[in-house]
């Protein structure tokens, strides 16, 4: 944390973005699935 690097990253200081990463991963998985169909 001393270098500004946080476990799950920060969008804005104090506002975690785990939910954003999860949403992005789900969207990417959906797009990949659509291409494989």
Q: How would the blueprint of this fold be written?
A:
Layout: E1 10-12, E2 15-16, H1 18-36
Antiparallel strand pairs: 1-2
Sketch the major β-sheet.
2 strands, antiparallel
In order across it, which strands form the biggest sheet? 1-2
Shape label: elongated
- Total strand segments: 2
Order of helices and strands: EEH
Alpha-carbon distance between the termini?
43 Å
Helix/strand/pairing category: alpha+beta
Poorly predicted residue ranges? none
Fraction of residues in helix? 40-55%
Provide the gyration radius in Å: 14 Å
Overall mean pLDDT stands at 73
Number of helices, counting only DSSP H or I runs of 4 residues or more: 1
Q: β content, as a range?
A: 5-15%
Short descriptors:
37 residues, alpha+beta, two-stranded antiparallel ribbon, 1 helix, 2 strands, 51% helix
Description:
The chain has one helix and two strands. The N and C termini lie far apart (43 Å). It is elongated, with a radius of gyration of 14 Å. The chain has a two-stranded antiparallel ribbon with strand order 1-2. It has one helix at 18-36, and strands at 10-12, 15-16. The model has no long low-confidence stretch (mean pLDDT 73). The chain has 37 residues and is an alpha+beta fold. It is 51% helix and 14% strand.
Entry summary:
This protein is of the alpha+beta class.
